[in-house]
Design goal:
Strand content: 15-25%
Order of helices and strands: EHEHEEHHEEEHEEHEHHHEHEHEEHH
Structural class: alpha/beta
Number of helices: 13
Helix content: 25-40%
Shape: globular
Number of strands: 14
């Protein structure tokens, strides 16, 4: 629509944020083709320095409303001068395989043959159904972080909803600590959902704007029988654990940055004392410096509290730094799985290879 007006300048504000790497690469190629055809300029605003490395002719670094550094990408990204630019570059996740650890722990979650379909969107095909999860197998050990990667529409978030029974699977089995989840009673399901907590992508939508931070954190524990005063004391301890001042419990979500809100969401999940946390794109909406802080927080909390994680992400760089094992999903199926070292150094499936080829900012590696 913008190019229909034949503009001399296009301002693109985070045009690829939260897109999977293949879609991101397609959008960036489209930008280049259209700009060459129309001889337009583009001012691309982004927190992804990988994108900057791939498309920018000039780079401007801003902090607190001020321009702190500018120049050619070859200079800014390779020999930065300002401390803030250096900090941003240091925070960019690299495609790095987390050292493999022998998994001798007990199986916490065991999924076999999980299947889920949706009605076809076309009115002319009312009897047809779209396969969202196709005979999916997954295991998570105690204390293990399992990554789930794939492009948009691959079934990653559907898997999370199915595991929590927000979506009803049509086949397969899900066992958690030996309990069958898919046919659990209401009481057993309530206990299961206490032990399995979810952290969502958008920290701006995850908290009720009409409730204080403290009210949001204690809501779950109070529903499960903890006295409000005790729950608030626990909430204060959790705020310290996630690096926030307990005094802010009386404040409202709009008073916090995106990174602070995500820390609050982590505290809210931990308040339920979960055994398993499902993090669905929990850092994709954050800039690289805040993203690095939240990833470090996840890692330190996991070691301290010994919970397991299913870490859903479209960013293979992030997955390679935090996950013990990774599954690659496409069209509801697992096409490849293994440790980061196996997938990133010797991918076997063509789709995995395509995802790796599309990772932005290889010049920063």
């Amino acid at each position: 629509m913008a190019l229909a007006l034949e503009p001399a300048l296009i301002i693109a504000d985070e045009p690829t944020t939260a897109l999977d790497v293949t879609t991101q690469a397609q959008i960036l190629r489209l930008f280049k083709e259209l700009l060459e055809r129309h001889h337009s300029g583009v001012l691309m605003i982004t927190h992804d320095l990988g994108v900057v490395a791939d498309v920018a002719d000039q780079v401007v670094v801003m902090r607190n409303g001020e321009l702190v550094e500018r120049g050619l990408p070859s200079h800014i990204l390779k020999t930065p001068e300002h401390p803030y630019t250096k900090m941003l570059l240091a925070a960019v996740p690299k495609l790095f395989s987390k050292p493999a650890q022998e998994n001798t722990s007990d199986t916490l979650l065991d999924v076999k043959g999980l299947r889920l379909t949706y009605p076809a969107r076309s009115a002319a095909k009312t009897k047809e159904r779209t396969v969202a999860l196709n005979s999916l197998n997954l295991t998570v050990g105690a204390g293990e972080v399992v990554g789930v990667v794939g492009e948009s529409g691959s079934g990653k978030s559907t898997l999370a909803r199915a595991l929590l029974r927000f979506e009803q699977a049509e086949g397969g089995t899900v066992y958690f600590e030996g309990m069958s989840v898919l046919d659990a009673s209401r009481a057993d399901l309530a206990l299961y959902r206490k032990k399995v907590q979810m952290i969502f992508q958008d920290p701006y939508k995850s908290l009720n704007p009409r409730r204080t931070v403290g009210q949001s954190i204690i809501e779950g524990p109070v529903q499960y029988g903890i006295a409000p005063a005790r729950a608030m004391r626990d909430a204060a301890e959790l705020m310290s654990l996630v690096g926030l001042d307990p005094k802010v419990l009386s404040r409202y979500p709009h008073e916090f940055s995106g990174g602070q809100r995500q820390r609050i969401c982590i505290a809210r999940a931990l308040a339920m004392e979960p055994t398993l946390i499902i993090a669905d794109e929990a850092v994709s909406a954050l800039d690289v410096s805040v993203q690095a802080q939240v990833l470090d927080l996840f890692e330190s909390l996991r070691k301290k509290l010994n919970f397991s994680m299913i870490f859903i992400t479209h960013d293979l760089r992030v997955a390679s730094n935090i996950c013990d094992s990774i599954i690659v999903m496409r069209k509801g199926q697992i096409v490849e799985q293994g440790t980061g070292a196996q997938l990133f150094t010797n991918p076997q499936h063509a789709y995995t290879k395509a995802l790796l080829d599309a990772v932005p900012g290889k010049a920063l590696a």
